[in-house]
Amino acid sequence: MLGFFLYFRALKYSPASIIASFTFFTPFVTLIFIMLLLGEKLTALDGVAALLILLSLPVQRIGNRSLSKRRSE
Fold first, then answer.
1. How far apart are CA 40 and CA 25, in angstroms?
2. Each residue's pLDDT tens digit, 55-69
3. How far apart are CA 43 and CA 58, in angstroms?
4. What DSSP state is assigned to residue 42?
């Protein structure tokens, strides 16, 4: 519930394209909570998945910038 509240609150102050990119972090945050709260150990596959999630945000932001430049030309 808190996540949805924060998501919609953020939409009030920022463009949806930026806020939507942060939804990619949901699985990563879930992994962190599983480790902290349940004491689970990450597998190598979990680590690779977390890395891909963390790298996806800069890639998407670069794509958004290039798309914005093309639209403004």
1. 19
2. 877 776 676 666 666
3. 24
4. P
